[in-house]
Amino acid sequence: MNILILGYGKMGKTIETIATERGHTIAGKVDVEKRNETLEKLNPQNVDVAIEFTQPDAAPSNIRYCLKNGIPVLSGTTGWLKEKSAIEDYCIEQNGTFFYASNFSIGVNIFFRLNQFLANIMKAYPDYQPSLEEIHHTQKKDAPSGTAITLAEGMLKSLTNKNDWYLEGRTTEHPEQAIPIISKREGTVPGTHIVNYHSEIDEIEIKHVAHSRAGFALGAVLVAEWLKNKKGILSMDDFIKF
Question: Which residues participate in catalysis according to the annotation?
Fold first, then answer.
């Protein structure tokens, strides 16, 4: 399979290593500085699928490029989701293939399901106050993380006394009705997400810690292998059947 890598930072290089180990060919590697030059030279017909891990301001145009040229594309870039519905409309218009996940790690997606299961239990115990904490390295630009937002959205599906989330430190109109998210940026640290339910008597906590980028990169390559020859708007719920 010929893979186009959009975003050749640390994640892009890890994806390249795993993809080639699994017998795939890298059709192109696009970094920020030479994006236009590389894409102008690229023959889209030689690309089976594109993997996009860039920056919030670059993701929409990269995805549109793929959809316009008939390239199935998966994106793991976070921080641009205000434009996601417009991208999905464009995907339908182009009869294309677009897969989005805030996190491609199999472990994190198991954690997402565990979070939803716990929230479904905790909805009967409103004395427990839910909160989220996410910790990442200082180079991460968006806060809260896309993974933390996905966790909050999973909790909101069950917790009927909450209707929103907010980033701690910023004002919100009805904080008692929202889930606070604490974002920390600390040097070189493993990506960590903590879901907590606190009461005056005790507290319950579940946590996911990423030991390396390999889990995210392997998940992206596995999705890319699965995505070839599929159509429409797809997500991890379509890829992983628990």
Answer: 136, 140
